Amino acid sequence: MQPVATAPCPDDNQLLAHLRSLREPQVMRGLVSHWPVVKAAKTSNEALVDYLSRFDNNTVVDSLHLEARHDGRMFYNENMDGFNFSRKRQPFMSALHALLERQHSAEADSLYVGSTSVAHCLPGFLTENPIALEEADPLATLWIGNKSRIAAHYDAPDNLICVTAGKRKVTLFPPEQVENLYVGPLHITPAGQAVSLVDFHAPDFEKFPRFREALAQAQTVELEPGDALFIPSMWWHHIEGQQSLNMLVNFWWRDAPAHLGRSENALYHALLALKALPDKERQAWQAMFNFYVFGQDQDRFDHIPDALKGPLGEQSEQTQRQFRAWLANHLKQ
């Protein structure tokens, strides 16, 4: 493994342009160290909870509960027909106070509140703790808990994570390492995205031998309060919360038009339509996808009149709607 590259923090008016220029992860130490929430967290866990309570609006959140014997690893159960944690709906402040009650116990069960909308849960928080990403219209979410290990997974949006309390260790892999990460089911997942089945604390190289190659290409970093990490779209990342109370706020955005929808849907349909074909047919379809979807020659459709290009030309929202309807009709046949 190698360390994630570190760069000086850009000025606010350059931040989004800088992030959009990146193709690999990058650390910006102290990017949000001026946030009041970071200053509260550096005082004490109690000061952090007191600060967050100022914005609380009695929101009920999903919390994950994991027995201490699992060492924070949120994962499948032994039979992989369920998960090793339970879910509970509880007031956000109730979860925070439960974390305070556990902070001095080395054998405490894990409690984790993740992927919770900041605007919904803590209205006004982002006004006091702003980030210069308005043009991207990001979704801000918070993640807070004690010891946790979140299995390696990818996200389609670009992602800026800002650590506000505790410490996080992040291990990242480029998208092409998917074949070496031993990814589990697509349709039964701990939190919505497919995850690596490798235990990063105790890799079983007999069962997962190609994981050695993934580790050779991995990047890793430990983040402290005030630090930020940019995770590009589709990069796999494994995240560990290492202290008794860890919190981060992240910002997701996509520069692609919203009307394009979820790219995963194309993958799921391709699996249904192509995976079971004879090998020679799958190879032929691979050539078709390489030409039509992944080809880099921008002139390859110039022989078709613009008015007849359909999805081979510029894909406006109207074009998308027309050909989604066309595809829906074909799927009925």
What does this structure look like?
With 333 residues, the protein is of the alpha+beta class. The chain has two domains: 2-255, Jelly Rolls (Sandwich); 259-331, no CATH class. Helices cover 28% and strands 23% of the residues. The protein has ten helices and 14 strands. The chain has an eight-stranded antiparallel β-sheet. A six-stranded mixed β-sheet has the order 1-11-10-13-8-4. The protein is globular, with a radius of gyration of 22 Å. The termini are far apart. The mean pLDDT is 94.
- CATH architecture field of the largest domain: Sandwich
- What is the succession of H and E elements? EHEHHEEEHEHHEEEEHEEEEHHH
The global form is globular
CATH class of the largest domain: Mainly Beta
Strand order, largest beta sheet: 2-12-9-14-7-6-3-5
Distance between the termini: 50 Å
Which topology of the largest domain does CATH recognise? Answer: Jelly Rolls
Helix content: 25-40%
| Unreliable sequence segments | none
Beta-strand content bin: 15-25%
Total beta-strand segments: 14
Report Rg. 22 Å
Mean pLDDT: 94
Count of folded domains: 2
* Count of individual helical segments: 10
Please name the fourth-level CATH homologous superfamily of the largest domain.
Jelly Rolls
Give me the secondary-structure category.
alpha+beta
Sheet with the most strands? 8 strands, antiparallel
InterPro entries: Cupin_8, JmjC_dom, RmlC-like_jellyroll
Protein name: Cupin-like domain-containing protein
Pfam families: Cupin_8
Domain JmjC: 111-268
